[in-house]
Every structure is written in structure tokens, then in C-alpha cells.
Specification:
This protein is mainly beta. It has helices spanning about 1-10, 320-330; strands spanning about 15-20, 25-30, 35-45, 50-60, 65-70, 75-80, 90-95, 100, 105-110, 120-125, 130-135, 140-145, 155, 160-165, 175-180, 185-190, 195-200, 205-210, 215-220, 225-230, 240-245, 250-255, 260-265, 270-275, 280-285, 295-300, 305-310, 315-320.
């Protein structure tokens, strides 16, 4: 019994710091330029009514302190850092606006007001480092460039609200989206029609993320409590389905350091760590929040450093090295997909 208990303690991720937000947490994202900077989006009164605040936090060891904050008259639901200018970030608002902020100068650079409902997703292009994609509850997706005064293109193929819009990590013109219409769509940014539609789940699809080490692999999370892994060359069926959450899966993040590691946040107040290549995929479940967990992100500089944020108004930062490294060293059974890969992936221009 003692040996088992000691092993569990050794494998448990270690919390390195916490920060109390004034409002409820929706999203966190680490800076692509500074390993100590963490953006955090928050909204008052469960995001239904009230104000919001976009934070930039400094994370140094166990100390998490605010560097800057932008107060808003509506909730802030998602944020994304500029990939070209260290002090710039964009965030999506409950009033349908997308704002571009220079936090170092505390200056609002752009205030795009084209969406007609809540903007639930924003993402900055990792490859061309210029374009921003946004998804909203008006069923539309919009493409932006920070030098332009209005959107470049609008995509209106989803039939229900958009929950997630994510650029491909290697192909500059490809992005994916998920919606309340239960589908995952893959797009070429130059075309207003999607190049692939997958009826991914039987319930609303709240999140997706691309594997940073596999051009063809994307994961989805749904109200049905499951996570599905897809190969877009053979989208007829998922490669595998992961179960471990008790309620809807709100956000997924694939590790920037390993093709195997994925984190998921859920309305069950937990964060799960997964090993995609193991038959027993669930590595560990963090149950440190007391409300819905809506935001997670891996630090791209500090391997196995994970940030989370919740409606309980707390940001936590974890070192998950012990859990992840023990799993990667272990000789666990390897998962082998049963379905062969067939058709080639559509090319983006």
C-alpha cells in the first residue's frame, strides 16, 4: 500500500503558483516571446451579463502578479498573442467585438465590430504571423489582418454557433473550426467554402486542436464528454475516442513538446492529461478547481508547464513533468489504430 501511495505522490503534477482573478476565467495563453508572460481572459457573472477584464500576468516561480489589465464593458472569452509583435494581443468579446491591444503602451490598436454575437474564439496564425481568425455565436468565422480596418473574409457555412477556430501549426492557409452543429470543418483561408466537413460528435463540438507533430491529426472535444482523434486523410471514423471526463470537454491543447501529450479542460471541474500513444491513455486527472475549467495552455519555452483557469476565479500553474515523464519512460501497451489511412489530405493554396 505504501509503495502504491508513494508512486501516486511522485506522479502527481506539482502546483507552482496561483492567482486570484476578479472575474470568472475563460482562457489562458502563454506568450510566444516571453516564458514568464501569461494572458488571461475573464468575464463577470458567468459571462451572461457584466464586465470583463483581459489580464497579462507575470509568472516567476510561485509568484504570479498582474503586469497589465484592460477593463471592458462586456465579458472577454478568448485571447491570442501576436506572433510578430511581443506586446500585442487580440481578444474576443461578449459584445461581438475583436480587440487588438498593445499592453506595454496600454493602447487599444483596433476595435473590430463586425460579429453580431459573442466571439468565443480567436487565434493568431503561427506560420504567416499576420492573420487572426475569429469564431462567434452569430455562426460566422472572420479573417483579420492587424493592418486592415475591417475583416478580409467571412466564412458562413456552420449552421450554429462557433466555439473554436484554430490555425494549422504548419500550413499558413489552413484552419479548423468546431460548432454547435456537431461538426468539425477544415478550411483553406482563401476559399469561403470548407474543404472538409466531419460530423465529429452527436452533440455540440466545443473545441479542437491540431497535433503539432502530425500534420494530419486533429482532436475534438464535445458536450458528449469525449475526445476524438481524427486523421483528416481518412475522416470516415475517428482514430480513437478518449473517455474520462464526467461532463462536457470545453478546451483541448496538444503539447508543443511531444506528439503524445494532450491536456483537456472540462465542465466537470477537472483537467485531464492524456498519452495518445498508450492503450491506457489517461495519465492523470487534476481536480484542483472548484468550478468549470475553461482555459488551459502549455508553455512553449518551459516543457511540461501548464496553466489553467476556471470560473472559480483562479489561475493555476503546474509542473506536470513527473506525471508525463514517468508515463513516457514506462513500457505501456501501445495504441494501434484499427482503420488504415487512405485518401490524401486536401491541399491548401
Amino acid at each position: 500500500m505504501g509503495t502504491v501511495f508513494n508512486r501516486i505522490i511522485e506522479e502527481s503534477p506539482k502546483m507552482s503558483g496561483s492567482f486570484q482573478t476578479e472575474f470568472m476565467g475563460y482562457s489562458v495563453e502563454w506568450s510566444p516571446f516571453d516564458q514568464s508572460l501569461l494572458a488571461c481572459s475573464t468575464a463577470q457573472h458567468f459571462g451572461i451579463i457584466g464586465n470583463g477584464r483581459q489580464y497579462v500576468l507575470s509568472v516567476k516561480g510561485s509568484y504570479i502578479t498582474p503586469v497589465a489589465a484592460f477593463d471592458t464593458k462586456d465579458g472577454v472569452y478568448d485571447c491570442t498573442w501576436s506572433e510578430s509583435v511581443p506586446g500585442h494581443l487580440a481578444f474576443g468579446m461578449g459584445d461581438g467585438s475583436v480587440k487588438l491591444w498593445d499592453f506595454k503602451a496600454n493602447k487599444l490598436l483596433r476595435d473590430y465590430k463586425e460579429h453580431t454575437a459573442e466571439v468565443y474564439s480567436v487565434d493568431w496564425n503561427l506560420v504567416n504571423k499576420e492573420n487572426i481568425i475569429s469564431g462567434a455565436w452569430d455562426n460566422s468565422i472572420k479573417l483579420w489582418h492587424p493592418e486592415e480596418m475591417r475583416s478580409i473574409r467571412t466564412y458562413k457555412e456552420h449552421t450554429k454557433c462557433i466555439y473554436s477556430t484554430i490555425w494549422h501549426p504548419k500550413h499558413a492557409d489552413m484552419f479548423a473550426s468546431t460548432s454547435g452543429d456537431c461538426t468539425l470543418k477544415v478550411w483553406d483561408a482563401h476559399d469561403q467554402r470548407s474543404i472538409l466537413t466531419i460530423p465529429a460528435h452527436s452533440f455540440e463540438v466545443l473545441t479542437c486542436d491540431w497535433n503539432k507533430y502530425n500534420d494530419f491529426q486533429i482532436l475534438t472535444g464535445s458536450v458528449d464528454k469525449t475526445i476524438k482523434t481524427w486523421d483528416i486523410r481518412n475522416p470516415r471514423a475517428p482514430v480513437r475516442t478518449l473517455s474520462g471526463h464526467q461532463f462536457a470537454v470545453r478546451r483541448l491543447k496538444c503539447s508543443p513538446h511531444s506528439s503524445r501529450i494532450v491536456a483537456s479542460a472540462s465542465y466537470d471541474m477537472g483537467v485531464c492529461l492524456w498519452d495518445l500513444e498508450s492503450e491506457d491513455a489517461l495519465i492523470h486527472k487534476l481536480e484542483h478547481h472548484s468550478e468549470f475549467v475553461l482555459g488551459i495552455d502549455f508553455n512553449i519555452f518551459l516543457e511540461n508547464t501548464l496553466a489553467t483557469v476556471s470560473w472559480d476565479q483562479t489561475v493555476h500553474v503546474f509542473n506536470i513533468s513527473s506525471a508525463v515523464e514517468n508515463r513516457l519512460r514506462a513500457r505501456t501497451a501501445t495504441f494501434t489504430p484499427s482503420a488504415p489511412v487512405s485518401a490524401p489530405v486536401p491541399e491548401s493554396s
